[in-house]
Amino acid sequence: MSNASDNCAVKIAVRERPVRQSLINSKESSVIGYHPNPNILIVEERPFTFDYVLSPEVTQAQVFEDLIKPLVKKLKLGFNCTALAYGQTGTGKSYTMGLDSTNIEGEHIGVVPRVLKEIFSAETQDKDNTENEPVFKREISASFIEIYNEKVYDLLAENSSEPIIAKGFRYTGGSRKPLTDINECHAILTQGSKNRHVRPTKMNSQSSRSHAIFTIHLRCILRNTNGEESIISSCMNLVDLAGSEGVRRTGHQGVAMSEGVNINQGLLSIGKVLQAMTMGSKVIPYRDSVLSSVLQDSLNLNSYLTLLACISPHREDLSETLSTLRFAQNAKQLKNTPQINSIIADIKKNAKIKQTPYKIKPLQNNIANRATPLKRTYSAINGMPVKSVIKSNTFCTPKKQRAEVNRCNQTEITSSKRPKLSNVAMNLPNMAQLESTHNRESLFNRSSDSNGSLLSLNISSSTAVDGLVNNNHNKGNTNFSPVIRKYMTELESGLEKKFIDILQRNLHVLMPPQTPAAATMAPHQTPLTQSMRQEIKSIMKEVLQDSPIKANAKCQLFNTSEDMFKVPEVPQGVLHPPKTSSPNMKSDERVSFTETFFAGVNTSDKKDLNKSIRRSRRISERFGIAHSVIENEFQIPSEPINESSNNTSYLRRSSRRSVLQRYAEKRNNGRLTTHKELDEIPAKSETSTKTPNNKKANKRLKDNNNSLISQICNSSSTSTNAKSRLSKHRKGVLELLNKGSLKEIQILPMIGQKKAFQIITQRTLHGKFKTWHQVEKLPVWRGNEWQRFSEANCLV
Ligand SMILES: Nc1ncnc2c1ncn2[C@@H]1O[C@H](COP(=O)(O)OP(=O)(O)OP(=O)(O)O)[C@@H](O)[C@H]1O
Predict the structure, then answer these.
(1) In the chain, what are the domain boundaries?
(2) Is the pLDDT of residue 71 over 70?
(3) What pLDDT does 301 receive?
C-alpha cells in the first residue's frame, strides 16, 4: 500500500476483493496485477495509477487508518468530508463501509463503526489534553438515509418504508439521532442496516438495492478564556453506492430490473457530476438524479473526498472492473479546495454581525464559487490563492485549526513558489477583535504584510475615496456611501451581489494606504491615480453593462466628474466609416452593412471592437461578400487587436471554425476526408477558384444562404425611409428564422449552433413565426439573450 499526503483533498483508492467462494476452486488467476510501484495497478497490461492500491490482503483496520482516519481529523477541524464506495455489485462496498449489519464487531468491522469509535475516543482524549483550546460542548448526531428507486427513505425514522423525498424535491436532510456513546451508534447502525432494501442476486446474496448515505454531524462549541463562544459544525458523509450491474448478468426482471436501471442512472449521474467538477463547469448537473441532488452538499469542491473503487479479480467481471477503474481515474482529476465553511455559516448567528448592512456570505460564497479549477489559483485580491483568502478570513479558530490553516497555506505557497503569505494566516483576528469592531469590514481587515503590499484592506485606516466609502469611526460602522447604496437598491439582486463582490475585491485599489498629502485633503479631493481610474472604470463597466442604471449614474456613483470616465480617442487607422465611393461594394450592400455593423459599436473599446470584427466576418458571410472586400471598405483590421496574451481564445475558436467549415464543404462534396487531406484544403476564398468540386459546393451553399439574405439587402436598398427599411429588415431576418436551415440561421449574430437548433425545434413544434413577438416569447432565450440578439441584429 502507498500513501498520499494528508493534505491532499481528493484521494482515490482501489480495493480488490478476495476471490469469491463459488470460484475458489476454479484456479483462475486474478486479472489484477500489481506493480513494484505501490501506486500502480495493472489490468490486462494496462497500468492505472491511484493514491492507494489495496490488495485483497489489506485489512479493514488498514483501510480505516490510511483512508478514513485523516478525514476524521479534518471533520474535527471543521471541514466537510465525504467517503464514497463505488464499484460493481458484490465487490465489497458495503463490507468496506461497514453498513452491512453483520460486520459490526471483530476484525471485519467496517468504516462507519470505526469512524464513530474514533470520534468518541478522540473526544475523551481531547478532554484530557489541556493544551488544546477547550471544547466547551461537542454534539454528535447521525442520519442514515437510502435512495431506492429514485426516492429517499429515512432509515432511522419510525416509518422507514415511507419515502421522505421523491424526484423533483429538494432534500433537506433525514432525521438526526443524537449520539452520546458508542453503543447508541451500534444501535442506529443495526436499525438502519436492517431497514435497507436488500435482495439476493446472481452476483451477491445480500446485494444492496439502494444507495446508502450515513452522515455524521459534528458541532463543537468552543469557549475561550474570556468566555467567548464560537461554533464549528461539519459533517462527514459515508456513502455506500449500490453496485453497478448489467441486467444480462444479474438476470433480473420486473421490479428488480427497474431497481437496476435506477441504480445505474444514479451512478451515471455521479459520474457526470464528477466530470463537470473536474472540467470546472459552472453548471454541475446535480439535478440529473435524486442521488446526485442529495449528494450536492458533499460532492463539491469545498469538501475532502475519498473515493474507494472496489473491483473484482475475476475475468468474468473484467469489463465492469475496467469501467470502475476508468471512473476512479476520472475522479483523480478533481482538485478540491476545502474550506471551513461551517464557521462562516455560523457567523450570521452572531447578533452583532447581523446588524451590518451587507452580508458576509455573498462574498465568501463568491470567492468559494470562483474556486473552479480554472480560477482557483489566484483570487482577485492581490494574487493571494483563494484558499488562503478564505482561510485567512476565518477567525476564532481553535489552536489546532489555526495551525492547520497555516500549514496548508505554507505548503501551498512553497510548492507554487508564491510570495510568502504566512503572516496573513498568522494574523487571524480573534473573537475579541471581532467584538471590538463588530462590523463587516473586520472580516477583510488583514494586517498589512511586511512588504507594504496591497494586502492591507483595512478600510477604517484608509481615506475614503471620492465618496465611495463613508467612514464613521465614532459609530464604529464603516459603510458604503449613500450614493452607492441608492444605486445598489436599483440593481437587480444578482447584480447587487456582483457589485458588492467587485467593489470589495477592488477595495485595495480604490483605497491606497494613506499618504500625508492625501490625509489633509477632503475625501472628494483625494486624487485618483490613472490605475485607479482604470480600475473604477472596469468595475463600473462590469457592473453596469447589463443594469438599468442611466449612463450618468456612474459619475454620481463615484461622486466624481464625468471626465474620469472619458473614453480615449479612437485609435487611428483602426476602424473608419465606410468610403463613399468604393467600386468594391454596391451601395445597397454598404447601407445594410453599415447599419448592421456599426450598430452599438464602441470603436474606442478594444474588446468591443474585436467583437465587432468577429461580427463583421459573420455579416460578410451573410451578405455573401468576400470578407477581404469588407475589410478594405471599412478598414477593419483583418486580425483582432491583441488585448492581452490570454486573448488567443478567439483565434483558436476562429481557426477551429474555419476548419469545421472546410470540413463541411468537403463533406458536401460527398468525399470523406482524412485530417491530412483536410489540412491540405485551401481556405474558403481560395477553394472557390481552385477546386472544381469545392466550387460547386460553395455555390450551392452560397445560393441557399443568399436567396434569403439578398431579400434583406435588396429591401434595405430600395426604401429610403429608415423606418420602413427597419421593418423590411426585421421581416427579412424573420424569414431567415422561418426558412433557414441550421447552418443559415447560425449566420445571424448571437446565434450559435445550439440556439439555431432550438429555434428550428420550436419552429417544427409550433409552425412558422408570424411576428417577432412570437420569437421573443420562445423559451430559448435566457437572461438578456433576447435583448442582445435583437440589438446585434438591429431589430430594435
Ligand atoms: N475485502 C473483503 N474481505 C472479505 N470479504 C469480502 C471483502 N469484500 C467483499 N467481501 C464479501 O463479499 C460479499 C459481498 O460484499 P458486499 O455485499 O459488501 O458487496 P457490495 O459491493 O456492497 O455489493 P452490492 O453492490 O450488491 O451491495 C460479502 O459477503 C462480503 O463479506
Answers:
(1) 10-341, 723-793
(2) yes
(3) 79
Atom of ligand 1 nearest to the CA of 87: 21
Which grid cell is 471? 467612514
Residue 90 labelled as part of a binding site: yes
Q: Are residues 342 and 307 in contact, defined by beta-carbon separation less than 8 angstroms?
A: no
Q: Residue 3: exposed, middle, or buried by beta-carbon count in 10 A (0-12, 13-18, 19+)?
A: middle
R_g over Cα of the chain: 32
* Distance between Cα 195 and ligand 1 center (Å): 18
Q: Please give all residues whose beta carbon lies within 6 A of any atom in ligand 1, as ranges.
A: 17-18, 56, 87, 89-95, 100, 204, 206-208, 242-243, 310
Which candidate, 98, 100, 140, 133, places its Cα nearest to that of 119? 140
pTM across the whole model: 0.48
Distance CA 69, CA 62 (A): 10
89 annotated to bind ligand: yes
User: Could you give the ipTM of this predicted complex?
Assistant: 0.97
Architecture of domain 10-341: 3-Layer(aba) Sandwich (3.40)
Under 8 Å between Cβ of 646 and 671: no
DSSP single-letter state for residue 67? I
Q: Is the pLDDT of residue 310 over 90?
A: yes
Please tell me the residue having the least CA distance from ligand 1 atom 15: 92
Kindly state the cell numbers that stand for 775. 420569437
Question: Can you tell me the distance from the alpha carbon of 575 to that of 127, in angstroms, rounded to the nearest whole number?
Answer: 74
What CA–CA distances, in Å, run from 488 to 89, 485, 503, 653, 700? Answer: 55, 5, 12, 37, 54
Strand order in the sheet with 32-34: 32-34, 40-43, 46-49
pLDDT in tens, 581-592: 445 555 566 555
Q: Cα–Cα distance between 268 and 280 in angstroms, integer?
A: 18
pLDDT digits (tens, 9 = 90+) for 503-551: 555 554 444 444 444 344 333 334 455 665 566 556 656 555 544 444 4
Contact 308, 96 (CB under 8 A): yes
- Residue 91 is labelled as binding a ligand: yes
Q: How far is CA 419 from the centre of its chain?
A: 27
State in Å: Cα 176 to ligand 1 middle.
28
Among the CATH numbers 3.30.420.40, 1.10.8.60, 1.10.150.280, 3.40.720.10, which is that of 723-793?
1.10.150.280
CA of 93 to the centre of ligand 1 (A): 6
783 is known to lie in a ligand binding site: no
Q: Kindly tell me the burial class for residue 436, based on how many C-beta atoms sit within 10 Å of its own C-beta (0-12, 13-18, 19 or more).
A: exposed
Does residue 646 surpass a pLDDT of 60?
A: no
